[in-house]
Design a protein that fits this description.
By secondary structure, the chain is of the alpha+beta class. The chain has three helices and seven strands. The chain has a seven-stranded antiparallel β-sheet. The radius of gyration is 15 Å and the shape is globular.
């Protein structure tokens, strides 16, 4: 299995960052790669099992299912159901941890998936740099960081 791990620090309290990223349907509000998103079957966006159907800025469509969400532990776990990327069995977790020194947030995004060996380096790099780090950079800009 391929693995991606990206972490960063956001200069804002974890509760504020969680408020921004918690909504499973809110990607277009905080991630620059996402054009629009909707939850299928009009389910609540925090209901485990709900499916978000979203479009990237380039027009690609992705469907993901919420597998877990915890306000107490500040994480969400989801799986990709459909994607143009050549991968299978993709499961990712976005997790926030309070940093008490300076009232900041440690944020990490991890994923594991199966793919052809010749695709692994490009997928790991693209997901890590464009998706995960791109999202972190947007959060840092929003909260007044780098």
């Amino acid at each position: 299995m391929a693995r991606v791990f990206v972490s960063s620090v956001v200069s804002a309290p974890a509760a504020k960052v969680w408020e921004r990223v918690r909504d499973f349907n809110a990607l277009p509000r905080w991630h620059p790669l996402i054009r629009d998103s909707r939850i299928e079957d009009a389910l609540p966006s925090d209901k485990v099992g709900c499916i978000r159907n979203f479009n990237l800025q380039n027009g690609d469509n992705i469907r993901e299912q919420l597998l877990g969400l915890s306000d107490y532990d500040m994480f969400c776990t989801y799986a990709i159901l459909e994607s143009p990327m050549p991968l299978d069995d993709y499961v990712a977790t976005l997790r926030l941890t309070p940093i008490t020194e300076g009232n900041r947030t440690f944020i990490e995004w991890t994923a594991e998936f199966s793919c052809a060996p010749e695709d692994e380096d490009d997928l790991v790099s693209g997901i890590g740099n464009n998706v995960f780090q791109g999202g972190f950079d947007a959060l840092k800009r929003h909260f007044g960081g780098a």
